[in-house]
Amino acid sequence: MEPSPSVPSPSLFDLSGQNVLITGASRGIGAACAIALAEAGAAICLVLREPKDEAPPNLATIDAIHDLGAAAHFVHCDLDNLDSVKGVFQKALDAMGGRIDVLVNCAGIQRRSPSLDFSETDWDDVLDVNLKSVWLLSQAAGRHMVPRRHGKIINFCSLLTFQGGITVPAYAAAKGALGQLTKALSNEWSQHNVQVNGICPGYIATDMNEKLLADPARLRQISERIPAGRWGDPKDFAGPIVFLASRASQYICGELLVVDGGWMGR
């Protein structure tokens, strides 16, 4: 691993000249992260779902990045189509001029059902998107970054990397495994100057949690247990993502950074 650079501390967070590939950035946490990385100087490539005739692609994040005067590209891939996932990193490389410095795996899906009734289809869908697609993208990124001895991979894990949750067995299994995958890749690739880390969001006010937000009893139970006194906002991830994507985290390896308003401290 290269030593941490000796530069003024604000420069450690400068991402000028860096190319970032990010999934799950059309909305929510992913969109906030993509915009924050662009504000720090990076060029961004978003992975967007294949366009459907009845629904035009959501390009709001692309437009927001362009409004900053930053470079933004996108490639199409449905992360539940693993054959498509296997080719998307090369598509992104082509779009970014043959170099990707940072991979952010932020996309994820949720299925809620009591475990006695949880379907095999829902299990497979969640594991494919939340774990196997991350593995395939990370492996492709590693094959690109390790020989170059330069790169960052940031996986979005969860509080359910540590806890079991309720009525979300597939999500808990996927996120628990993703935490271990993050550490396993870090153990192999840190010596090649590729840092692999994870971010574990707490309860964040996004579309994924709309059922919890709409349930008065669960909303009260959860809110009362958050020491910070509020649910998180996607903008709360701007600082953590820039930190882990930048030279400021040069000696951070295999870490699971919890961003939860103090939930895990309880």
TrEMBL record:
Name of one Pfam family that matches: adh_short_C2
Domain annotation Ketoreductase: ranges: 18-192
InterPro entries for the chain: KR_dom, NAD(P)-bd_dom_sf, Sc_DH/Rdtase_CS, SDR_fam
An MF annotation (GO) of this entry: oxidoreductase activity, acting on the CH-OH group of donors, NAD or NADP as acceptor
Lineage top rank: taxon: Eukaryota
Record keyword Repeat present: no
SMART domains given in the database record: PKS_KR (SM00822)
Record keywords, A-Z: NADP, Oxidoreductase
Family: Belongs to the short-chain dehydrogenases/reductases (SDR) family.
Protein name as catalogued: Ketoreductase domain-containing protein
